[in-house]
Amino acid sequence: MVVFDMAGTTVNENNLVYKTLMNAINAAGFSYTLDQVLAVAAGKEKKEAIRSVLKTYKGSFDESMVFDIYEEFIGKLKLAYETEEILPQPGSVELFEKLRKAGIISVLNTGYDRVTAEAILSRLGWKAGTEFDTLVTASEVSQNRPEPDMILLAMRHHGLTDGKSVVKIGDSSIDIEEGKNAGCGLSIGITTGAHTQKQLEEAKPDAVINNLMEILTLVTKQN
């Protein structure tokens, strides 16, 4: 089984989520840059992402501020996803097809809630059971990345008990940490999204790739 992150990994939305998150945070009276937001928020459940930004750059904050910013973010994001271009990452659909032919399960997991994730997939025209097998979101688990709960849930869904039979790939260091915490056979970073190769390498992945199709060789070797 291969577990893919969505935005920045299989979905090309030009950091739309984190630009929107930055705008929602800054609307509360801050002036953080996109690089600052990406550095500490990428890959996280979005309330936790807001907390991480405020904790890192502000220090103390009231939890009510987190929820106010989150509501602003969700409103802005809904509008952004209705109007901005969202595309599959190059090679993603082809890779899903090749994995399916090889008998390898494709799972999408994400720090989005299910409503947001399904809205993105609807824009792409992707359906579970067709382009990919299963979607697992932050809504379905009590602990989010870097905890392994989403991967473990996907494993249970498909009757897998050995994490070493699973590969995790994502564009942020927290994706790599999630894979390691789940005991995945491979935890792979990809440079198409939030974090640079240097940032990914700091999380000590098993590999860093630049294109999704590179994963095919790694996965078939691992299986």
TrEMBL record:
GO MF entry, a single one: phosphoglycolate phosphatase activity
An example Gene Ontology CC term for this record: cytosol
Signal peptide from the UniProt entry: none
UniProt keyword Signal present: no
Sorted UniProt keywords: Hydrolase
GO BP term (any one): DNA repair
InterPro entries xrefs: HAD-like_hydrolase_sf (IPR050155), HAD-like_sf (IPR036412), HAD_2 (IPR041492), HAD_sf (IPR023214), PGP-like_dom2 (IPR023198), PhnX-like (IPR022468)
Pfam families, alphabetized: HAD_2
Name this polypeptide is given: HAD family hydrolase
